[in-house]
Amino acid sequence: MTRTSRIAALLILLAIAAAAQVLDRIAVLVDGQPILQSEIDDAAWFARLSAHAGCESPLSASELQTAREHLIDDQLLSAARAAAGFPAASDALVETQLDTLRLRAAGNAPWRDQLLACHLDEATVRDLIQRQLTLLAFLDQHFSDAPEAEAAIDGYYKEVFVPQAQAHNLAPAPLDDVRATIAALLRQQQRGSAEAAWLKELRAAARIEIKGGG
Amino acid sequence: MAALLLPPAPSVVSIAVQPPPGRSASEFLPLVVQPVGQAPRRDLIRRSILALYATGEFSDIEAVAQPTAGGVRLLFETQPNFFLSVIRFVHSPDPPAATELEDASGLVIGEVYTPAKLAAAETKLRQRLQTYGYYQAAVVATVAITPSTNQATVSFAIRAGALARLAQVSFTGIKLFTDAALFRASKLRAGEPLSRERIEDAASALQAFYAAQGRLTANITLATPQFHPAANLVDLHFDIAAGPVVTIAAEGYRYSAGALRQLLPMYQERAADTALVEEGRGNLRNDLQNKGYFDATVTYSRAQINPDRLRILYTIVPGPKQSLDAVRFSGNHYFDDDDLAERIALRANSPWPDFVPGARGRFSGSLAQGDAEAIAQLYRSNGFAAVAVHPIINNAYRGAPNHVAVDFQIDEGPQTRVRDVHLDGASAANSAALRQLLMTAPGQPFAPASVASDRNAILTYYYNSGFQNATCAAQSNPAPAANQQDVTFTISEGAPQTIHQVFIDGNHYVHRNVIAHDLSFQPGQPLSQMELLDSQRQLYDSGLFTSAAIAPANPDGAILNKDVYVTVNEARRYTFSEGIGLQVQGGTGGDASLRDVLGHTGYSPLFSFDATRTAMTGRDQTLSLKSTYGTLQKRAVLGYDMPDFLDRSWLRADWTTFYDDTFDIRTFRAIREQAGVQFEQSLGSAAGLTYTLEYHRVRVLSPLVAPQEIPILSQPVQVAELAATYHRDHRDDPLDTHSGSYNSLQFGVDQSYGQGFADFGRTVFQNRWYRPLGKEGRVVLARSTQVGFALPFGERSTVTFTNPITAATSTVHDYVLPLPERFLAGGADSLRGFSINQAGPRDPITGFPVGGEALLVNNLELRFPLIGPSIGGVVFYDVGNVYSTPRQLFRSLLRWRPPASSTGSLTAAGPADTDFTSHTVGLGIRYKTPVGPVRFDAGFMLNPPTFQYFSAAPSPAILFQRLPPFHFFFSIGQTF
């Protein structure tokens, strides 16, 4: 039995020490596909881990609800990805991201302690990272860049960039120098609202059933 | 950092899964991957929940750990899914039909029931009813759950309300006519109930209106109707684009207006888009080629003469009229010429005259190329991968211009054969069965098309054996030896699905056993889609149900052992039909005068009433009453039909009793009362035996026969008959046969209970034979031969005849068959040289037909197409007659005339020898209708007989009358 498994078993032991305990259950159905409570818990803990928020205190109801809604969105996006035949993120990419987290934890041992504190194991974190990276890449492709209209860039330069520079007593850089930056900024703004609109559309067309206690 | 020391975690002592009702936990325990004896692991529990959910049997699952001695008990608590087993509609209007409503609801028998689906179904049903004009329809759904069987029965109570009525109609767009004119053209009326059909008719009427003006491209679009709920009224709005007037003409070859209308689809479709114009070009070219203009070219142009006029002109260059004299093959060894000729579209000319379509043969360069490819394809499918086929066209065959011959030169090349066939992944049992199905086998010609077909056959086998997830990939590789291939089918069988339980619903009157009898599947058997479909068809064909649905519950779930739902909608048990018609019949009475021997054409109104009650005693048995009433015939038949008699699928019993009052021959009016039973034994799909036990009583009224015969022939006769008939039917289509044969042989024994009548045995043999002629088989040679003998025995009677002129008497002591039991012939369905029942011996005094003891009817017909596919022609030759005795039949076969017909006096008192064999030739027209061909026949008897009769006025004399040689008949169905 691996160390991680024993740790997980200990947690389960603690949970069931006194009386019958629900170990896991179906929390949500999205178009007939189940999301388990344990998956929501994992996602919420991972959010804390990613945000360096510490895992000492139990998960709050709002954290669980947020994690649940993200998982619902992920499920809808995963279905769209599968329908489009978009490939999953490569193992190498996932390992790179995992290495980043390990480095941020300043070593393997602290990393393992962090995982233990957040009731996670590396396999679960790997799965969560892969899903994240896959969906991000899919969204990037779905909202693949369209060249920003020149009028929009010109408008932003004149109405926002130049006044802001002048307000700080700075000479505004020429338009050609900042055109790419302004274009990227406008794309990011539009992407956010486009993604939100698409998710809203997907949710409206989906059958989402929250099970009792979810 | 040191390893974390942890106390040992509690082990799982036992695992339990709460199964759905009707199922065992043992079906689900194997899906739990958490092992006993180990601490519960979250990932294993997660996988277990997902695997259990994937079975489709559960709507919710919780994994619960209960402390127990030695550890924990792991329990998977579940909520079952319920599956739609019955969908009912109560008080629904028709149209739409219940099947359409079920389709519109989106609910499918066997799928999981959810409240959300029910709510969506209500909305969809309301929307569908709206399209039929029920804008205020209320739909209320209720569901009844049967927990013990996981079934959900859904009922939709529909209150359709009144059909919305038309308030007003408006028109916009380029109309070219006033709204009033368009309203009249739509044939709508304000205030009328507005069903979907009515709206569609209005749109069609407007389309036809514009088409009649020549505006074939008119576009009529109906906007969404505007509904006014308070008054239940609807406004309609049509947007119209009238389009130009389209004129269509053809130059270069003279076509009549009617022929153009038939060949060009723009007239029927009332449109003139490019696809239709192109189709018309193809039709014209094919028509010209059929007439022998093999090199005909047809082009078309569209010209906008002015904004309101479009002209489509077909320019035809027919070329010379040619004839395809010969089609030959050379270089073929594997296939002979006949095999290849069957594959090609080219047709050499025929002896038919020019006006017959195709008489000059069928040829074109593209047809020849197509045929070459078809021949090559035939060779490739038999292993000749390198075959080359070249059509050599000779435009001056035997030196004659415009006489064409085509020679297909074939270079077969080597033939590749299959060396070995591997079935990788198939179990031993399935392998043996699969090899029986495959066309691809060692030693057989190799063809990729056969391999692909075999792959489909393999998958079909697996699907019908319950392996719904089977996959099969086919691959072929060259074998070491030259011209050989090895074929490998790589199969993944998957797990077989089986039938868990069968639930039957929807029946109220029909016994469950009757439904179960038609099902060809049982619990425990593999789940075969083919068996489900066959059973569904069997139920529908029984006539007891308007619809029958058979579907597995939870079709998408991973569980392998599936319930099957059989849901039926019973047909109305009682059906009534009534009719009114006109019966027209020659050779009938009306005037009892002895001068009117041949009778005349009789007309009678005919009323009919039929009543049927099915599902008698809850079984597949039917009680029926059929009755007709007219001055020529009054008939009532009460019958009880029992298929699967004594639970034997090959045995059927029919009990009948009937009353018949008929006046269809000149001689007498007969009232016949009959009761009987008939058993039919099926001997396969084409043959059967029928056993009949019948009792009937016939009273002859107002017989117009010799007074001496009255004492016997007017007496009621009671006959009990025991008969057996063997029949064998190999016709391709009983209604309009083109090939095959039909044979029947009947033996019967009849016992007469009337005073003085003989008992008799009867045998009737019938043989029908149909042979298509020519390569296309459109001409059919058909023959029907019917021979019957009645062999009296038992009591002989003494009949005394008195010559009315000389008063001389003669006595005959012989068997007397009851008049209604004798053979009769003549009419549209037997010998067309006679009016109905006018053939055979006649009473020597009155001249009326009296029937005979032997029958021969031989009909020979040549049936051929005349005009198009619907009108055909017939040339026929009928031979035969009714004979006084069987011995006389053989003596009279070669007699052209009866021996006593030309004498001017009745020298012997008593019936003369009037036996002879009639010969009739004739022509007929057949017009195909959905209920069979309507036929008109004109027959001319080559040797009409002369018969004698006694006339008392103006002075007693023996007179002679010749039967008219011409007869015309009009009826439905082929003669035989």
Describe the structure.
With 214 residues, chain A is mainly alpha-helical. Chain A folds into two domains: 3-142, Porin chaperone SurA, peptide-binding domain (Triger factor/SurA peptide-binding fold, Orthogonal Bundle); 146-214, no CATH class. Chain A has helices at 3-16, 37-50, 61-84, 91-104, 108-117, 122-142, 150-167, 175-205, and strands spanning 21-30, 33-36, 208-210. Chain A has a three-stranded antiparallel beta sheet. In chain A, helix 2 crosses helix 3, helix 3 (61-84) crosses helix 6 (122-142) and helix 4 packs across helix 6. By secondary structure, chain B is of the alpha+beta class. Chain B has seven domains: 11-80, membrane protein fhac (Ubiquitin-like (UB roll), Roll); 165-241, membrane protein fhac (Ubiquitin-like (UB roll)); 245-317, membrane protein fhac (Ubiquitin-like (UB roll)), CATH 3.10.20; 323-411, Ubiquitin-like (UB roll); 417-492, membrane protein fhac (Ubiquitin-like (UB roll), Roll); 498-571, membrane protein fhac (Ubiquitin-like (UB roll), Roll); 577-972, membrane protein fhac: a member of the omp85/tpsb transporter family (Porin, Beta Barrel), CATH 2.40.160.50. Chain B is built from 16 helices and 42 strands. In chain B, the strands form ten sheets. A 16-stranded antiparallel beta sheet of chain B has the order 23-24-25-26-27-28-29-30-31-32-33-36-37-38-39-42. In chain B, a hairpin with a 6-residue loop joins strand 27 and strand 28 (669-682). The model of chain B is unreliable at 1-7, 590-594 and 901-910 (pLDDT under 50). Classes of the chains: A mainly alpha (214), B alpha+beta (976). The interface between A and B is medium-sized, with 30 and 29 residues. Strand 1 of chain A pairs antiparallel with strand 2 (58-68) of chain B.
